[in-house]
Amino acid sequence: MADTRAELIAAARALQPAGLNKGTAGNVSVRDGDGFLITPTGLPYDTLVPDDIPRMALDGTYAGRRQPSSEWRFHRDLYASRPKVGAVLHAHSPFAVSIACLRLEIPPFHYMIARFGGDTIRCAEYAIFGSQELSTAAMRAMQDRQGCLLANHGLLVAGHDLAEAFALAVELEELCEQYWRACQLGQPVLLTPGEMRGVLERFRGYGQP
Ligand SMILES: [Zn+2]
C-alpha cells in the first residue's frame, strides 16, 4: 500500500519535468482494490508523503488526513465504468489546453491518434471544474477512447497502470503540439477512415505479448 502511494507521488512529481504541469494543477490516481488512491487537493507535489494520499471508495467517500483532488469524480467514474482502467491522469499541459480552448476535436492528422482507440481525440463539452457535469461530459468524450480533451481546461487519459497513463499523457500533449504546428503551415492532410482502420488493426496486434 505504501509502495502504491509512493508510486503515485513519483508519477505526480514527474508531471512537471515532462512538461505536463506547473504548480498543483492536474491530478493522478491509481486503482487500489475496490477503490483508488488519488493526489490530494492543493498540496505541492514535492512536499507529498504517503500519508498525504487519500484513498477513495467508488461511492465518493474517502479516508485519510488530506482531501482528495477536487476532480475526483472523473477518476471515480472511469474506475467504476471500466474494469481495465488502473490509473487516471489529468493535466493542464500547454498544447492540450490551447487546443481545448478552441474546443477542437483532433482529427486523424497523424496515425498515432489511433493509440487512443479511434480516429479522433474528442473534446468534452465545457462544464465547471470539479462538477459531476464535467465528469459526465468527459465520460462521453472518453467512450471507446483512452484520452480526451476537456473544453477550456486540459487533458484526461486512462491507462492500465500508472506507466501507461503517464505515457499516454505525454503522447497526447505531443500530438496536440504537432497538430498545432501543422496547422501553422496550412490545412493538415487527414488520413482516410480506411487508412485509420489499418492503423487500429495494427495497434491491436502491437506490443509485447
Ligand atoms: Zn484541471
Arithmetic mean pLDDT:
95
Main-sheet strand order equals: 4-3-2-1-5-8-7-6
> Could you give a short account of the major beta sheet?
8 strands, mixed
Q: List SSEs in N-to-C order.
A: HEEEEHEHEHEEHH
* Rounded radius of gyration (Å): 17 Å
Principal-axes shape call = globular
What portion of the residues fall into strands of 2 or more residues?
Answer: 15-25%
Small molecules bound in the structure, each named once: zinc ion
What structural category do the secondary elements indicate? Answer: alpha+beta
| Helical residues, percent | 25-40%
The number of distinct β-strands equals 8
Regions with little confidence, pLDDT below 50 for 5+ residues: none
Number of helical elements: 6
What report would you give on this structure?
The protein is of the alpha+beta class. The protein has 6 helices and 8 strands. An 8-stranded mixed beta sheet has the order 4-3-2-1-5-8-7-6, sandwiched between helices. Strand 1 and strand 2 form a beta hairpin. Helix 3 (94-101) packs across helix 5 (162-185). It is globular, with a radius of gyration of 17 Å. The mean pLDDT is 95. The chain binds zinc ion (ZN). Zinc ion is lined by residues 25, 71, 90, 92, 129, 153-154.
